[in-house]
Design brief:
A: alpha/beta, 12 helices, B: alpha/beta, six-stranded mixed β-sheet, 7 helices, elongated
């Protein structure tokens, strides 16, 4: 057996060894993990107070009983596991006490509920139902606590298998501890330190490229809104981060640049417009797409001041589809820019020209949407008949948007012709406008 | 051969980067005595175990990248500890102190997720019938007395369920081994059985014990004489969620303890009428929300449907309620002081045992 053969056998044996170790570790009690979801109970409704993943053993869900039903769902909404649990607002006190005696108390109200679940790789959403009526009482996202956990413990076998843990300090700084190490691609080179008689092992892991989930930062000072949007977005396959206000948003994007920001307007002390201004003022964050969300009617002065800063604008209440479409549209635009840019560069178009076109295109999209919203309000009888001065501002804002849109469209047409001609000349397909 | 040894060592020493550091992890107990055999996890992955001998309690990690890492240490009979370290420079020492665990296992334990996990917690309070007040008691300041009481309760209740269930629906032969029993004893933080309905335990308990299917706050006997109904020992079960079921019961009242266990572990419902909470506890209920449900369930499960009857009666203070029961008297879920689990309740208990190993 020559040296080369020994090395091949060694590598094969060690690959097997690492894989087996990983499998064994997942079953090791030391690696058991739970997700604890704390639900508050107020005004006859549950809301998610906190979620945390931690090391520990889970109770036996198979034997739990009660009038509530918990369901763990996978990414596509399929049931991974369901179980029953007792309503925390109910107590069984025995034996029944005669009137006037010192009873042990009876029913309690306003109790919080802590649901301890085993960590299940497929589990992405937890839902709580009233068993009798079938009413959905609460929904919790299970992916966020896993992401947070894996940021702290990126080398945990489950985190390795998940390919998460990107936020860890080690992962951020060291490619070797990057999040998406796959055991199957592990190569091992052994070097023998003859003098000491010991073996030193160098593990070189190959990074398997997986599409990163787009990161969406939700900014709203109403925790029920951030919780809901986070759940929805995670469910849709995004990584949702949340911030409870303008300053928290600015702090967050200094640490991690999201792909999109969903920014509420009516917040205190820093409102959404001020936050937007600060985002655009910082060269590192100015290009982050921002989708404004608000229940507040669109004010003409805000349109005049900020229309060039925003990427989209949706009005509460909005449907899930409306939200997903808006986010997907922004991300699609971003993706298309990268693909089209590569193509038009081959046709001799400069990056500046293409970027100008894209900016104008986005501007026209957004301005047209704002225009529609303003016109809907301007033409409403209430505004028209009661607030003439405001009506004047509306008219000014509409005029501004119309003028801006016309100017932009003219230039857009010119740029498109230029790019189409260049692509035609070089025999490459023109971007799909 | 040497390479295979190196492979085995691969989980111990991982070279992450060329400019990596050497981190010496030192694990001791509160008295500063080194602990060998403690598992050390770097960023969640097993890095090795602390050694014995001259370098007792020490594990040296080489090749640790100079960034922030999490260090987690576990060891049997100690509470696990995690800490963050920021590695800088070539050499770094990390000290980890482990506290003794307060959780004591009383039986060989199966996987918590596939067993019925019962944890006993001592109460520092009891009740004085004469003065109708909560009183402190010192009985459970002695751990061995508490442990004896717990073992006595276990033997007369959980491990004797076959004596109080319907013999025509025998429990699984190995039902006793379906339980994992523990007690939790922190002499500085005893529970209070008379704080709220089901008593209370310190919040830190829930961080240590995440897997309990029921935590029993055990209190010693009432003081005074049990002269009337107002002075009977009480029990209560309330759940704050999965893993958060809390049951209070006296150590000297077997039937009441079994009744509360009916609620806490087997999901049975009170079949008396009055100040309690009723619902049809499917599957295999012992209470039905309609006569027809009771009768059809009885027929389906081989019981006589004519024995379904409404709980309460027009002469009782609370009158009749719109719930029906089947189990004959003395039904322990109706009486609480004595009685047995009837056929319907036993079928439910059998169902829970059948599910306890991970579902049928």
């Amino acid at each position: 057996m020559n040296g080369k053969t020994i090395l091949i056998i060694a590598i094969a044996a060690c690959m097997l060894c690492v894989s087996c170790t990983a499998a064994a570790q997942s079953d090791d009690p030391d690696y058991q993990k739970i997700i604890e979801i704390t639900l508050g109970y107020e005004g006859s409704a549950y809301h998610v107070v906190s979620e945390e993943m931690l090391y520990g053993a889970a109770p036996n869900l198979y034997i739990s009983s009660g009038s509530l039903k918990g369901v763990i769902l996978d990414r596509s909404g399929g049931e991974v596991r369901s179980f029953y649990l007792q309503d925390p607002n109910v107590a069984f006190s025995d034996p029944p006490r005669p009137a006037g005696s010192v009873a042990a108390t009876g029913t309690v109200t306003g109790s919080s509920l802590t649901v301890t679940l085993p960590y299940l790789e497929a589990g992405k959403i937890f839902q709580l139902y009233d068993r009798q009526t079938g009413a959905l009482l609460a929904t919790a996202d299970l992916t966020s606590p896993v992401t947070t956990f894996c940021a702290d413990y990126p080398a945990d076998p489950d985190c390795l298998l998940l390919g998460s843990g990107s936020a860890s300090g080690a992962a951020a700084a060291e490619p070797a501890a990057a999040p998406i190490w796959m055991y199957a691609a592990t190569l091992l080179i052994a070097a023998v330190v003859a003098a000491s008689g010991a073996a030193t092992v160098l593990i070189i892991r190959t990074k398997k490229a997986q599409p990163a989930k787009p990161v969406v930062l939700v900014v709203d000072d109403d925790p029920s809104i951030t919780d809901l949007l986070r759940t929805l977005l995670n469910y849709k396959g995004y990584t949702a981060l949340t911030a409870g206000g303008g300053q928290e948003c600015l702090d967050s994007i200094r640490k991690q640049i999201p792909d999109v920001i969903l920014l509420d307007i009516m917040m205190a002390p820093m409102d959404g417009w001020t936050t937007l201004q600060r985002i655009r003022a910082d060269p590192k964050t100015k290009s982050i797409p921002v989708l404004m969300i608000t229940a507040k009617p669109l004010a003409p002065e805000d349109v005049l001041q900020y229309h060039v800063c925003i990427d989209d604008y949706i009005v509460k209440p909005f449907s899930n589809d409306e939200l997903f479409t808006a986010v997907a549209h922004i991300l699609e635009r971003k993706k298309r820019i990268v693909e089209d840019l590569a193509r038009v560069k081959k046709a001799g178009i400069t990056q500046e020209t293409y970027c100008e076109l894209q900016k104008l295109s986005k501007r026209v999209d957004v301005d047209n949407k704002l225009l529609r919203l303003l016109q809907q309000r301007y033409e409403s009888p209430v505004v028209a008949s009661t607030t003439l001065p405001e009506g004047g501002k509306f008219r000014a804002a509409v005029d501004c948007l119309v003028t801006s849109t016309h100017t932009s469209e003219a230039r857009l047409e010119d740029l498109r012709r230029q790019i189409n001609a260049a692509c035609l000349a070089k025999g490459c397909p023109a971007p799909d406008w | 051969m040497l390479v295979v040894v190196g492979c085995l060592l691969s989980s111990v020493t991982a070279v992450y980067a060329a400019d990596a550091s050497r981190v010496t992890v030192s694990v001791t107990d509160k008295a500063g005595i080194p602990i060998s055999g403690a598992k050390v996890f770097l960023d969640g992955g097993l890095a090795g175990q602390t050694v014995s001998g001259d370098s007792a309690g020490i594990l040296v990690l080489t090749g640790v990248s100079p960034v922030t890492h999490s260090i987690r240490v576990t060891c049997q009979n100690y509470r696990e500890t995690s800490k963050k370290i920021t590695v800088s420079g070539d050499e770094q020492n990390v000290s980890v102190t482990l506290d003794r665990t307060y959780l004591q296992a009383l039986t060989p334990n199966a996987n918590a997720g596939q067993a019925i996990n019962v944890v006993f917690y001592p109460s520092s309070t009891s009740f004085d019938c004469s003065s109708n007040t909560k009183v402190s008691n010192s009985r459970y300041k002695n751990e061995s007395i508490f442990r004896d009481d717990v073992l006595n309760v276990i033997n007369h209740t959980y491990l004797s369920l076959d004596k109080v269930t319907d013999a025509s629906n025998p429990l699984p032969e190995n039902y006793r081994s379906r339980f994992n029993f523990y007690y939790y004893y922190n002499p500085l933080a005893l529970g209070d059985a008379f704080d709220g309905c089901s008593g209370s335990v310190p919040a830190s308990y829930w961080n240590d014990v995440t897997f309990a299917d029921v935590t029993v706050v055990l209190y010693p006997t009432y003081y005074g004489k049990y002269t009337n109904a107002a002075c009977q020992p009480i029990g209560c079960f309330q759940s704050g969620g999965t893993g958060r079921g809390l049951m209070k019961a006296p150590a000297d009242r077997t039937s009441l303890f079994i009744h509360e266990t009916g609620h806490a572990i087997f999901g049975l419902v009170d079949t008396y009428s009055g100040d309690t909470w009723h619902y049809q506890n499917d599957p295999y209920p012992n209470l039905w929300s309609s006569l027809s449900s009771c009768q059809s369930d009885a027929t389906k499960n081989g019981r006589d449907p004519s024995k379904c009857r409404q709980i309460g009666d027009s002469t009782s203070a609370s009158g009749s309620e719109n719930y029906w029961r089947w189990d004959p008297d003395p039904d322990i879920m109706a009486v609480t002081y004595y009685g047995e689990f009837g056929t319907a309740s036993t079928q439910r208990i059998d169902y829970v045992f059948s599910e306890s190993g991970g579902g049928s």
